[in-house]
Amino acid sequence: MARKRSSYPLPVSQVKSRILVVEDEEGILSLLEEMLRIAGFDPITANSGAQALALTRKESIDLVLLDINLPLLDGFQVLTKLRQTHPSMPVIMLTARQDKRDVIEGFNLGADDYVVKPFSVEEVIVRINALLRRSAPADDAKPLILGPISLSPITHEVKFRDEVIALSRTEFNLLQLLIENPRRVLSKDSILRQVWGYDFLAATNVVDTYISYLRKKLHRDGYEGIRTVRGVGFQMRES
Question: Contact at 8 Å (CB) between 116 and 98?
């Protein structure tokens, strides 16, 4: 992990984003804290899942770097609890595990991105910037409406008619992509690139899983607007 100051991308805004780093290996924790500060972020740290959850309750946090292999309360358990209280908080998982099933489990629990150790700090910072950029709506973004569904990029509120529907940040980003492209068929590869920011998971079922999540929350009262176009991808319609 190089320590060259000039090589780190700047954060997406002049306001320092607060990054919670959850890691029980002291060397990695200290390195990430130092390099995030050099890159212009405001890092805070936790070396256990319980400490991390306590910090999310009392601190204003913009993004979480969460190691999976934590003692007592592992990263998957922390993520599950975090999604109950902060459904849209951006989370990047850090892990030494390379089994694709672990990657899928992390996404299924609501992770937004995944970095496998050993990693370069530059890669982590690039992914943080990309996720923060995708998570930050334009100030003049107008509400999007398609059929009975309305979505506000500014407030991150989704409604089915008059009922507010709770979505995770990834679910929200996927729904926004679908609504912004009404009736257009989007391939899985295209969705992966635009929602997750990469396509190395093209062989997994992460897109199908999140489409299923949206259908469970939005398909009601006769509405079945999220369609599968077999062999091509997915599209969203008014009804």
Answer: yes
Please check whether residues 33 and 81 belong to one and the same domain.
Answer: yes
- Last residue of a domain, which of 135, 157, 192? 135
Bridge partners, residue 157, by sequence: 152
The Cα 198–Cα 191 span in angstroms is 9
The tens digit of pLDDT for each residue in 34-63 reads 999 998 999 999 999 999 999 999 999 999
Angle of helix 75-85 versus helix 100-108 axis, rounded to 10: 20
CA angle 134, 106, 31 (to 5 degrees): 70
State the residue range of the domain holding 42.
5-135
Are residues 118 and 20 located together in one domain of the fold?
A: yes
- DSSP-assigned states of every residue in 172-235: HHHHHHHHHSTT--B-HHHHIIIIIS--TTTTSSHHHHHHHHHHHHH--TT---EEEETTTEEE
> Among candidates 177, 187, 197, 193, which has minimal Cα distance to 228?
187
Residues near 140 by beta carbon (within 8 Å), at least 6 away in sequence:
none
Is the bond into 143 cis (omega within 30 degrees of 0)?
Answer: no
pLDDT tens per residue across span 210-239: 999 999 999 999 999 999 999 889 999 998
d(CA 149, CA 199): 28
pTM value > 0.85: no
Contact, 50 vs 77, CB < 8 A?
no
